[in-house]
Design brief:
heterodimer; A: alpha+beta; three-stranded antiparallel sheet; 5 strands; B: alpha+beta; T-fold
Chain lengths: 178, 290
């Protein structure tokens, strides 16, 4: 159990600097690989398992975009970083095994991370297991925003129901309360 | 822009036409649309006593459907095969027995799993040979198909920009390639959206069980378990054809996108029961996530 906690925290600690440093290491144009100029949200974009607590990161002097997934409608010209998808492979040390690798891919739109993918690259069996558990738990959850607060032309979802259906439903609810 | 709103086929329609048209022309086109919707409803609605579908539920035999049935029947057969029978027009009787009947009784009677397609009917073009009476339901793709039919009618009048929205499923065309921002309704709160799709010259359809729901059921029924799927809360599909987009939202309640991708060109977003999200890489939109 002690070892589990240790391994997981090493994994998390190893990942965070990658996410943060990713911007700075990969910023140079020659390494940037924008996939498309109109990048939209692709794969999981939150880091539910990653807590920004580790102090192993060199504090960057520029503000780091938070992994918020609400792309600000800011004009592209004001972005600090070029829109696109960036990838890197990192390694981290584990007890009783050689250093283990892990791939991270981030998509940036207007300085906001709109997608992040983690790829297991471990060679050690135990590390592979933990990386897979991490990746499996690395899914995103939708949250609602009030329709009034979002600029929309239309709304799509469950179809509006016919009056007859709603009347029947209300009648049943009334009966159930009686 | 002219916004024309009315209720038909059990849902609310909102048809936007360009402001450049004169009012008389709009009235003329809208009249044609209303007639066309009525013709469709009279053929395929299981909610009205005078429809072909209702006649088919009472007597076996050969039925000649309108020629527009061909595309819809072809899609249904394709989805039937690709989903291993989960998407089937033969779900009508089970839906009705679950309570989603012509009178909206919402009272559940004993239900039976639908029979196999080939055991009940032979389809050739728009002709159906019914080997036994069967209540067909075209709820999975019929509305999307009608949106296409109405859109084609508008286009045939020389109108290049329009939005045909039937209860949140829509086809949108813009001569100027203007983006339409479509809120993706939260499956847990109808006053909220969980994202925004940005569509241009395409169709988007959504499916969720949160409104058409009664007891343990909603309007989507698993033909094997005879229960409504609970693992998925909402599905959206963007495709060139509204018929396909609509049909695929139901298919995705039962099969993984990978099962449909070889046969259809589409983008999707799926919200699961735990509010987790998956979507295709090129889904044209953004999602609000925690």
């Amino acid at each position: 159990m002690q070892n589990t906690v240790k391994r997981v925290s090493i994994l998390v600690a190893a990942l965070l600097p990658v996410v943060v440093l990713g911007f700075f290491v990969m910023k140079p144009k020659e390494q940037a690989q924008p996939v498309t100029s109109s990048v939209v949200v692709t794969t999981p974009a939150t880091t539910t398992s990653v807590k920004p607590t580790t102090g192993t990161t060199t504090t960057p002097s520029t503000p780091v975009p938070t992994p918020s997934t609400t792309p600000a409608p800011a004009p592209a010209s004001t972005s600090t970083y070029k829109d696109g998808t960036y990838s890197v492979t990192t390694t981290y040390r584990v007890p009783e095994a050689p250093a283990q690798g892990m791939g991270v891919e981030l998509t940036l739109v207007n300085d906001v991370i709109t997608a992040a993918t983690v790829t297991a690259k471990a060679t050690d069996g135990t590390s592979m297991m933990y990386q897979n558990i991490f990746i499996a738990g690395y899914k995103t959850f939708v949250v609602g925003k009030n329709i009034a607060d979002v600029q929309l032309t239309k709304v799509s979802g469950s179809s509006l129901t016919p009056k007859g259906f709603n009347d029947a439903l209300n009648a049943i609810k009334t009966q159930a309360q009686a | 822009m002219y916004r024309n709103e009315f209720d038909a086929i059990g849902t609310h329609w909102c048809i936007d036409l360009p402001a450049t048209l004169d009012a008389q022309r709009v009235e003329f086109v809208m009249g044609k649309i209303r007639n066309r919707i009525e013709i469709f409803d009279k053929a395929y609605s299981r909610f009205r006593a005078d429809s072909i579908v209702t006649a088919m539920s009472k007597k076996a035999g050969r039925y000649e459907l309108p020629t527009d049935a061909v595309s819809m029947l072809v899609l249904y057969r394709k989805l039937y095969d690709l989903t291993g029978g989960f998407v089937t027009p033969l779900i009508g009787q089970a839906l009705s027995d679950a309570g989603y009947d012509a009178a909206y009784s919402l009272k559940t009677k004993p239900m039976m799993a639908p029979k196999r397609w080939d055991d009940v009917m032979r389809v050739e073009g728009s002709v159906i040979d019914l080997l036994e009476p069967a209540l067909l339901d075209f709820g999975a793709a019929g509305k999307g198909y009608l949106i296409d039919i109405v859109s084609d009618l508008i286009a045939s009048e020389g109108i290049g920009s329009y939005c045909v929205d039937a209860g949140g499923d829509m086809r949108y065309r813009s001569d100027a390639n203007a983006v339409l921002r479509v809120g993706l309704e939260s499956p847990v709160s109808a006053s909220q959206v969980i994202g925004v799709a940005s569509v241009v010259n395409t169709s988007i359809c959504g499916s969720a069980g949160n409104r058409r729901a009664w007891g343990a059921f909603n309007h989507i029924l698993d033909p094997r378990s005879l229960s409504s799927p609970k693992h998925i809360l909402a599905v959206w599909v963007v495709a060139d054809s509204t018929l396909v987009a609509d049909g695929l939202t139901t298919a995705l309640m039962f099969v993984h996108p990978e099962a449909l991708q070889p046969d259809f060109d589409f983008e999707y977003a799926i919200v699961y029961a735990d509010l987790s999200l998956t979507h295709s890489k090129e889904f044209p939109g953004e999602f609000f996530q925690s």
